[in-house]
Amino acid sequence: MTTRLDRMPEWQSLNAHARAVADRRIGVMFRDDPGRFGRFSGEAAGIFLDYSKHNIDSATLELLLALARASDVEGWRERQFRGKRINVAEDRAALHTALRSDGDGGRVHAPGPVREEVAEVLGRIGTLAEAIRSGQWRGHTGKPVRTVVNIGIGGSHLGPALVCRALSRHDRDGPEIRFLSNVDSGHFDEITRDLDPEATLFVLASKTFSTQETLANAESARQWLGLRPGRDPGAENHFIAVTGHHERALAFGIVPENIYPLPDWVGGRFSLWSAIGISIAIGIGMEGFRALLRGARAMDEHFLAAPLERNLPVLMAMTGIWCRNFLGTSSLAVVPYTQGLELLPAFLQQMEMESNGKRVTRKGEEVAWETCPVIWGAVGTNGQHTFFQHLHQGVETIPVDFIVVKEGADGQDGTQRKLVANAVAQSAALMAGRDEEIVRQHLSGAGLTVDQIDRQAPHRTYPGNRPSSTIVLERLTPESLGALIALYEHKVFVQGVVWQVCSFDQWGVELGKELAVAVDRLFTGDAAGPEIDGSTRGLVALLGSGVETAS
Ligand code: F6P
Fold first, then answer.
1. Distance 155 CA to ligand 1 centre (A)
2. Of the candidates 266, 260, 244, 265, which has an alpha carbon nearest to the alpha carbon of residue 125?
3. Which of 55, 197, 203, 338 has the smallest number of CB atoms closer than 10 Å to its CB?
């Protein structure tokens, strides 16, 4: 029997604590405590996490961990890794961690049949990646594959795209990997404009094999290749499918040996470790793909074994909950200071917001507390010249995750040092701020008149006390990237447990999908078009024809 979150004594204690400490200055806590950085930071699986720039002290942390314990985070964690059906809304397991368990008897154990299935598919992915990378796999006219285009959207796009982008310098021997996601012929043209159809392989990545965008793009690809619908013999050299719906891929015309399974216990946004990662294995080689899995597994081991007070995903989750539920922040900015991670904010947007952007509990009751904040961000330093103004002087406080890579891709040189210095400086500035008194002194020192100082000082004052976490990777490698992604996965899981929501369904995207089909019928003049409001009807009339016939 789960007690409602807001009725738990641990929740109420945190509320009382927050009222008492909300206004204290993080900078002052640093001045009073020289050991603060060491106490509120930790390292695991090659990832360093500094969470000392949050408005927390030992008492706060104890209360947050008490809430995690009372929410049975440890029990849920055990159930997740053991393959229990924790996706209650869909009555499924959420066993993506099994995809990176190596079956060697470590803590990350997967149930036996799952382990066998994972090993078999990994073997097939390895053979495929090798055949393509070595030039053995040929297009129907005998040309080796020069470009692989992954067609997929959401979880069937963002994970592989993030990893391929991040590790593009890791191994340049393979073919080029491109990603087509949007149902926009302009996007299709951009992706294929300079490609040779005879040397191009498409990976159709779709768990359901019914996603409108992916199927439309797959059809465009077929036409672009000059193939006939159905079982055109040329198709087997140019199409691979990754799906949980074998029969739908067959119906599209994919030969059975080119279809790779995606089990129902892998959610789309957690699927890059599965055959959905085929484009990764082709792009960086199977060794690289296995290293990515190894890195994630190291984080899994840590998540399972470390006591909560040293458990990085738990600490990240609980500082996030502290900001969101007790200090009232409503969004989280993710700012990686390395170009390779430019897709991380978009990837986390799906992972966090599709998982925990929920308004009912696992039992279906409306929540009386905030759940997932809005996740957004962009690569630093670019973000400093766009939205950082708002972070420093906007009305609301927005916590930031700074992600910093110690050694840049090309070694430690001047630009890398500048990049890292900017990240550290921004987190320091957000916390310290600059009060009006100091601003006035500076302006006076610069020779401004009293009148000028009065006018300028308010605009040049920074409130500070804005929290951030800093995550440090030694280098951007398959291992460290695997560990980083797994860190966020487990953070999201812990938050979902505490918020009492089901983190593994995404019913919220269905209504829009249904209506898109219905509205499309209005455009084509289908008289059986749906009952629709005046604005939507007006827009359909403005944007196309057909609405009159449907009215
Ligand atoms: O956007 C909703 C969603 O179902 C995601 O959860 C999923 O990753 C994406 O669509 C793509 O779905 P599929 O892999 O089935 O094409």
1. 6
2. 260
3. 197
